[in-house]
Amino acid sequence: MNCAELPECTFCHAAIALADVNVGTDIALCRACGRSMPYSQIATLPLLEDFDELLPPKGVRIVNSMRGREIRYKRISPSVFFLIPFTAAWSGFSMTGIYGSQIEAGKFNPGLSLFGLPFLCGTIFLLSLIVFMLFGRSIIDWNEGQLRVKAGVGPLGWTRRISCGKDARVSIRMAKWRQDNQPVEQIVIEDDGKALKFGGGFPHETKRWIAEAVKRQIRAGGVW
Fold first, then answer.
1. Can you spell out the DSSP letters for 139-184?
2. What is the pTM of this model?
């Protein structure tokens, strides 16, 4: 492992030698600044070595757009087929009982309406989540020195950007948060002390393929 592949300190970004890492206790010591940190948060996972642009994972496409070449990812999670009937039953029961009864009686009940606000907010959240899971997609592109990651449905959603050169570091690392009490991998783009992290919800092989594709796109200046 060369210096460029060594894990970096999250505080001063100096390379940390493997001799200063204790995998058993998940501790890494930075000799440059004297601070320690969880090794799992700075360790990089291998990207896809047998990368094939013509054989992307399920749900991934490479398309040409006005910004250049884009990596698009869209895949319907099986959990949405549980979420739809659950939302219909839970929201239908609560909304009918709280607000439907008032409409039927033709009388407004301030106390009951106030009590129903958490259920209304929950319904809106669940419906938004279902729409995103059914129709949402992620777009990643690199153009004129700027990497853009966009996720959402049409114009709705969030967009993150980071300015990075051809030597920007692309890696897969463990996130600080966990899902179902399990560590989560995410794609990390770093350059000039800044970082952009995304893809925590992508399948493992999809993350590796996209990370390798992004690295090659950056190295080639956006043209593969």
1. EEEEETTEEEEEEEETTEEEEEEEE--TT-EEEEEEEEEEETTEEE
2. 0.70
